[in-house]
Write a structure and sequence with these properties.
This protein is of the alpha+beta class and 363 residues long. Helix content is 25%, strand content 33%. The protein has helices at 43-51, 93-103, 108-121, 137-149, 167-184, 195-201, 219-224, 229-234, 268-274, and strands at 4-12, 18-27, 32-36, 58-63, 66-67, 78-81, 155-159, 187-192, 204-209, 212-217, 241-249, 253-256, 261-263, 281-286, 291-293, 301-310, 315-321, 324-330, 341-346, 351-355. The strands form four sheets. The protein has a six-stranded mixed β-sheet with strand order 6-7-8-3-9-10, sandwiched between helices. It has a five-stranded antiparallel β-sheet with strand order 13-12-11-14-20. Helix 2 runs parallel beside helix 4 (137-149).
């Protein structure tokens, strides 16, 4: 196991494109940290720099206090699992698992021991004599993971390892990876564009966009306290509802929009933070589960139901509010009819306010 430290890591390509811009964070010994962001944001480039597969333009990378900027990948004591399984089709599972150890000149008895241990962890003992063509997609991915496990490296690097699997297999493999990490305690850096994977796997999450770190925190703190509009809109399924308008204090706080005004119920700390924003454009963010139908007099807005999506344990109400589309997450017995109009309330302690121009969080 190891610590990993990135100090102002930067990647600039010959054409001037900045792939990663001043990335700085530390990964604790035994931590599972997830890099998440949309395609092209720089997360895989950063992972490849940690692996030594991509040269670092500037900054310092340390593994266990050893500067490894110019250390060859084979000498960094890391193991990487790629999106593609890259298994040797003519080799058995056991041979695939042990191939890297053979290349490193390990003794056969040591290779056999590590292969048996990895097969047990991954529940592949009964498939050691099978070839990749006879395996399911999930089993092939487990072999790819096992090939990294047998190395017993200081750091695991996983680059979109589940993206080739169907939804059901992705769910089961997420559980497998979390279980293996809990058992082995190896420092792990996991790259994904899937925010559900990030939220369910990461002890901490680094949110990337445009080559820059947007926020680093635990999954639930990112969800409850997004630092900016990108994080607010990226994390969460369905995404956070965002309403832009002019904040005004006239007979109470209101969000003035082109077609209506939304009365705001604010907590004392929200009022204090928003005082300087009176008369300025802000964005109000509300999670779908915090936008709830109400029959009482306390309501914030009226919206028309466009599409109802029952998904078993909950229902998503897709709503039209002026020029805005909204989503409300409700219990399964609260199914509204399409084209009906709902009154919806917003819990005061679940409102998020952002600077409409810069996108940064106000409160």
């Amino acid at each position: 196991m190891a610590t990993v430290s990135l100090d102002r890591i930067r990647k600039v390509y010959p054409n001037g494109h900045v792939g990663v811009d001043d990335a700085s964070f530390d990964i604790a010994d035994g931590e599972l940290l997830v890099l998440v962001g949309p395609s092209g944001c720089g997360k895989t480039t950063l992972l490849r720099m940690i692996a030594g597969l991509e040269p670092i333009t500037a900054g310092t990378l340390r593994i266990d206090d050893r500067i490894v900027n110019d250390v060859a990948p084979k000498d960094r004591d890391i193991a990487m699992v790629f999106q593609n399984y890259a298994l040797y089709p003519h080799m058995t599972v056991a041979e695939n698992l042990g191939f890297g150890l053979h290349l490193r000149g390990k003794r056969q008895d040591d290779i056999d021991r590590r292969v048996r241990e990895a097969a047990k962890w991954l529940e592949l003992e009964h498939r050691l004599d099978a070839r990749p063509a006879a395996l399911s997609g999930g089993q092939r991915q487990r072999v790819a993971l096992g090939r990294a496990l047998v190395r017993e490296p200081k750091v695991f690097l996983l680059d979109e390892p589940l993206s080739n699997l169907d939804a059901r297999l992705r769910l089961s493999m997420r559980v497998e990876i979390a279980r293996l990490h809990r058992q082995l305690g190896t420092t792990t850096i996991y790259v994904t564009h899937d925010q559900v994977e990030a939220m369910t796997l990461g002890e901490r999450i680094v949110v990337f966009d445009g080559g820059k770190i947007q926020q680093i925190d635990t999954p639930m703190h990112l969800y409850d306290q997004p630092a900016n509009l990108f994080v607010a809109g990226f994390l969460g399924s369905p995404a956070m509802n965002l309403l832009r308008g002019l904040l005004q204090q006239e007979n109470g706080w209101q969000l003035a929009m082109p077609h209506t005004r939304i009365p705001l119920s604010l907590l004392p700390q929200q009022e204090a933070a928003l005082e300087a924003w009176n008369g300025r454009d802000v964005v109000l963010g509300v999670r779908p589960e915090d936008l709830q139908p109400t029959t009482s007099g306390a309501w914030a807005l009226e919206a028309k139901v466009e599409v109802v999506e029952p998904v078993g344990n909950e229902v998503f109400l897709n709503l039209r509010f002026g020029d805005n589309t909204l989503v409300s997450r409700v219990p399964p017995h609260h199914i509204a009819a399409p084209c009906s109009v709902l009154r919806l309330s917003i819990a005061a302690d679940r409102q998020h306010f952002f600077d409409a121009e810069r996108g940064t969080r106000i409160v």
